[in-house]
């Protein structure tokens, strides 16, 4: 048995509404013991409340305008690449602890590939390739030998009809089990001061299976079993649970932002082309162990783009096939990305403003001097942005409800050296119940693409020797987790952190740490860069 001083358990999409429903069915007794025998509170997420941006915010304590990751993809002008750990330009908890002589084991935390070199071990998770480079070198093979196998992603793609739902759930529980077993193996070997293990399938089960409660229970039951083993075998002095966001039903509408912007004269469209910046074309290659940074269409997909120029869009063809009862045949034989290249797309250089990707929850202005072919003069930026904020704020659903709960200038949510990576206007759906789309598909409104999706409030819970449960506030913020963990060690946190210490521990105070240097990045080799893009479609985060 090893003894971890401070253990952080990440439960993607964990939140009190989900936990409390699971309590009723007695599915998560170990998680419940941390929440109720210690203390818990809602944990307010950031904007946008999505995995690849929110977990870096949690583990650095700074907002995306500082660390630089605002979504699944980063942009070079109008082109894009899937984000990696090299896009996170701020020190992680484990790197700061390393500076103070504390060791760490980090398993399955999103956006940690390629890994940093620290005293301890790192096994990257989501958004890295299937066979991620780990630290120390050779660690992945060692883990596979020790526990009998380890994967980052499921062994099937989303929508694969060759596997039954039961077989898919077996794979989900296998993945959850692998996280726990790998973490326990590494803590036994390294005896770290700090441990951080993240469970991702607690989120994706909602996306893939539309909130099917029996499947949710199955995944959480295995996650809780692993939490119980972590508590007994790692014997932490202090344990925290944290999530990146919550999860709940989207029972309103899907609002196609770029269709609205086109009618208002801001978006210009083109037929065919590479398609909207997206993480979808990358997912399959990630699962295959590649680490593609971007995506280029195949010959078949380029043909679809060419056909679209003559009016034969994938959307029109699909609609025609559906009318004659051949929709299933079209799905079976059409490559995934034909729809991407064979539909109308936003013509970014010619547009005044547009939504780049739905998960950014915002609109970008095509600013001259910032974008490669920007058309909005800097002296017109405020005028264009203010007019857009006014127009978007007034949009209503067919039922007469506001589409957006808030439409705000980006400065309200993003600040720091990378604030220019963010959208210029933040568009937060009303009660996080309206599903936003960046696609050009004709109508403004449709039923939500996914009936369950992310909510603002996740959860934080704490229990242990240095935790005062009476100090838990009624609500904490995602940015508070990093300074709280540093204070739990009695180590000053960075004065650049945006959060406050949750008063379950004494606030040690901050100190100045060196600015994050690009030289801190771990370079990717050519083979790493060959394949990250197609893998991510089956996780359903982007259209």
From TrEMBL:
Signal peptide start and end residues: none
Composition bias type Acidic residues, residue spans: 515-531
GO MF entries: hydrolase activity
Record InterPro entries: Alkaline_phosphatase_core_sf (IPR017850), Phosphodiest/P_Trfase (IPR002591)
Stretch list, region Disordered: 507-543
Classification via Gene3D superfamilies: Alkaline Phosphatase, subunit A (3.40.720.10)
Protein name: Alkaline phosphatase family protein
Organism: Haladaptatus pallidirubidus
